[in-house]
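User: Hi! Is it possible to get a structure for several chains at once, not just one? Here's what I have:
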Amino acid sequence: MARLGDLERSVMDVLWSATEPLTVRQVHNALSEDRDLAYTTVMTVLVRLAGKGLASRQLDGRAWLYSAALSREGLTADAMHSALNEDPDDRSAALVAFVEKVSADEADLLRQALADLEAQAETAPPSRARKRRGAS
Amino acid sequence: MITALVLVVLAVVLAGPGPLWVARWQWLHQVPRSAIILWQAGAVAALIAVVGAGVVLFHYLPQTHGPVRWIVAIALLVFIGHVIVRLIWFGLLELRRSGLRRREHRALVDLVAQAESGDQGRHWVLAHDEPVAYCLPGLLKSRVVVSRGTVDTLSADEFEAVLAHERAHLRARHDIVLDTFGALHKAFPVLIRSELPLIESRVLVEMMADDHAIREVGTLPLARALTELAGTRAPAAALGAGPMVLQRITRLSRLHPQRRLLAVGAGLLAAGLVLVPAAILTAGHLLER
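Assistant: Yes, the chains can be modeled jointly so their relative placement is included. Here is the combined structure:
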């Protein structure tokens, strides 16, 4: 099953980098450059992706043409949205972010608490504040 | 009969007013691991009391006389049955729901995120400017997920602190702790239950993961990461008693050097709490014989 997930990702990568809809053969060729894959496997994955709504397909003569139904950016935004989701109705702890969002006043309190902590570390001999890398 | 009544009263106290009292104990935040055990002990004690009351009632029901006693007995049985059925129902529902949501989300992450290797293992990076960091627990396919915004915003040691925090969640399966408290919360009838064990357990697992990040990377990198990643939101959506992150960061400057003693204290309290319903059951058994 993990292999199938990897394949789905590879196939989507091919569809995302393509400029026009691709036939199964074209997807298979693109993937066969760096690995040995059966044509039917690629076809199965494409049908699955279409079933999941990730790929869309249209009939061109006798061949199906596949393209990405959703952009990578759109799906990333979906993932971000669901990770940042603070829907009060969803009380389940399925996804818990490292830190939650705060109001502007609370952000001030937070910075104040950090300043106190840094001052405390300045006076205490061990583990002085380390130099920061990068800006922002 | 008296035993059952005492046990049900105990269960109600443990579900409602008890947490109100315990949630005021600020010192529990010093020792989050023991504090979680104390909260769990409270829940277990409440359950033992409920189930114990049920067993006692079934045992003595045939010898019951008089309408008042019957009404009390039946009311108690309805309450007990209610809690047990809700616990099983909501427990399964809660586990299924969060499992499903995580699976869906993991499939999405696997599709779009870039796996990157660090010193302590892999993490997945979402190509997005807004900083976010979280973990997807699971038996085999657990993942730490961050956004590009997080990688760009934080310094190397701050980023390590975030990863250490999230890995602690995954390793100690804090998701199971939270799901259990969620199920227990829903098991008790709305009128008597308190939301505090649920809220406190959320804060406490974060503090446990913070403690791990402190051990691995240090207090200051963690505090800076917390401050930098706490995104701002519109003030309208204010819920509950302020954000957890404030409790977490103020705690960092007050960590007591002798908190091992506090941990022992909380552990003893937890053990005592579980023994209370057991002691009532035994005493009742001896007295009514």
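The first helix of chain B runs from residue 2 to 15. Residues 2-287 of chain B form one domain.

User: Great, thank you!
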